[in-house]
Amino acid sequence: xxxxxxxxxxxxxxxxxxxxxxxxxxxxxxxxxxxxxxxxxxxxxxxxxxxxxxxxxxxxxxxxxxxxxxxxxxxxxxxxxxxxxxxxxxxxxxxxxxxxxxxxxxxxxxxxxxxxxxxxxxxxxxxxxxxxxxxxxxxxxxxxxxxxxxxxxxxxxxxxxxxxxxxxxxxxxxxxxxxxxxxxxxxxxxxxxxxxxxxxxxxxxxxxxxxxxxxxxxxxxxxxxxxxxxxxxxxxxxxxxxxxxxxxxxxxxxxxxxxxxxxxxxxxxxxxxxxxxxxxxxxxxxxxxxxxxxxxxxxxxxxxxxxxxxxxxxxxxxxxxxxxxxxxxxxxxxxxxxxxxxxxxxxxxxxxxxxxxxxxxxxxxxxxxxxxxxxxxxxxxxxxxxxxxxxxxxxxxxxxxxxxxxxxxxxxxxxxxxxxxxxxxxxxxxxxxxxxxxxxxxxxxxxxxxxxxxxxxxxxxxxxxxxxxxxxxxxxxxxxxxxxxxxxxxxxxxxxxxxxxxxxxxxxxxxxxxxxxxxxxxxxxxxxxxxxxxxxxxxxxxxxxxxxxxxxxxxxxxxxxxxxxxxxxxxxxxxxxxxxxxxxxxxxxxxxxxxxxxxxxxxxxxxxxxxxxxxxxxxxxxxxxxxxxxxxxxxxxxxxxxxxxxxxxxxxxxxxxxxxxxxxxxxxxxxxxxxxxxxxxxxxxxxxxxxxxxxxxxx
Length: 699
Ligand code: ADP
Ligand code: MG
Known about the structure:
- This protein is an alpha+beta fold and 699 residues long.
- It is 50% helix and 12% strand.
- The chain contains 24 helices and 17 strands.
- The strands form 3 sheets. Strands 9, 10, 11, 12, 13, 14, 15, 16 and 17 form a 9-stranded mixed sheet that branches. Strands 1, 2, 5, 6, 7 and 8 form a 6-stranded mixed sheet that branches.
- Helix 22 (615-645) runs antiparallel to helix 23 (651-679).
- The two termini are 31 Å apart.
- Residues 413-417 have low confidence and may be disordered.
- The protein binds adenosine-5'-diphosphate and magnesium ion (MG).
- The site of magnesium ion has 4 residues, from strand 11.
């Protein structure tokens, strides 16, 4: 068996492969393009394409694809063969620079939120040379952006790259002001921790709700849930261990730095974390990771559930987005420095993030809003829907001292920073852990915990990068025109802190008292549902910021608003239809059948001994009949609501109506159906129960 270093990245056309296979000249041109985004000379592109093709064919590839991330949230690919007829009746394998750089998939069925009405219908894909090409199965995958002919982004990668550029541009301005002349580039990095559930594939196949919607729409509570906390970090069972080993191997071949794996809080819930990388690559890798997770599960007779809330009553799954900004000279800008000046620079970046999160909290919330994530945010498990920032006691005390212009008590040295304080040297890694905060500082990075497990991390990072970039722009504008840098900086930081400290909160984010304080006293947003949250995209203040940073155009933003809400509506309507189908085709017939069997049993007993009371049977038949009637009434009400909703076409109104009228009907139906489950004999219940799904395979 090959060792990990031998197999790592073996399916990636990475730097090692390029260096070994390209001529020095082509390699250097390619590196320039990757680093600075300079366009590739067609000759160079041809040389790269030829080399890529040879490498891919040697690894068994027969096709290539422009791999892109449309607004559906998953990735898309259309395979094209390398084969081309040769005059002698055979074939040759062809792949040109032109095919590498640009593709024109007939992709007119992807959601465009009206963008295509005004632009060319097809859209085109353009190579993103900053993310390496790789082989999946027999296909060479080329990471690409997806745009309309008018240049409007139809995907998630394009705005992400733009937001990274915005952050680079504005952060460089700040660094220059601090006298950093050697830094050429600032980039943001992300390490996304991915949570997921594993269930047995055969059981999965028996549940229409899991098949159609990825989550259970019915299911009574099992006797045991997660109350004993015995699963979190528990011993990994052999079947899961085998899955994880296989998964790691597949991910490593694709150059994905899968590093940490453990059991999560809920039964059969697990987590995988890679080592962090540049946001663009981390995003591509996370999309690939989700795909490979599902593929590998199949091999093990398992099904990997990436839904945010597959089971009611136990924890849902999220994706912790660990985020930091660093220079190309290797300095993490969110790491406290050694000298007072470095510390001042650290404080500036820290305070800029705080201001950005406060100013654009609604946008951050919107960036993670989906029908699935609505079940999670605001429930007693994930971060609440209220965005706040956790800094830990020490850093909070430092900022308080700064704000009051007092020396910080914890300072070991008497050196003064900005005339008032020095940061203690031991600051690094001393922050406490707070699992309830949506946005926590963890020593040298921020952890944004609101992202849903099935979401692409692109949206969250687009908003985060843009918001921070724009705050840095504001700071740089002020500092650049100042004659007294130190004094202006001092005033700027204190001013920002005073204006935005309401977002800082170190306490328990799950606490009801906090939600009360956050909304009533501090005036923070509590956007509980997707229709509430999406409005942030159209807020003039937010639109102006995103336009100013050239991350989105107004049309692009409006299209995203439409698409996200459309997705919300469709998702819930599918869930409701699935519930109706399961109720009529499975649940009601099963309850009726069981009821009849009980009645028949009682009849037989009475035929033998006419005086028998048969109280148990009579009572049960009565209860089940009443429940059946209630179930029937509920499903009818649900269907009636669906019919009414089908007449609403305006997307904002529809999303609100779905939230306010359809979701409650779904909850009512579920409640009575779950009650019937509890009273129906196991052998009659038409699909696997929570207990079956959560326990039987792994115990
Ligand atoms: P925990 O669950 O304790 O928060 P994990 O080890 O599961 O920690 O995940 C932490 C994630 O943060 C990993 O993906 C790690 O690579 C990432 N990370 C570490 N340092 C940085 C950094 N400077 N910038 C971005 N991500 C980072
Ligand atoms: Mg973790």
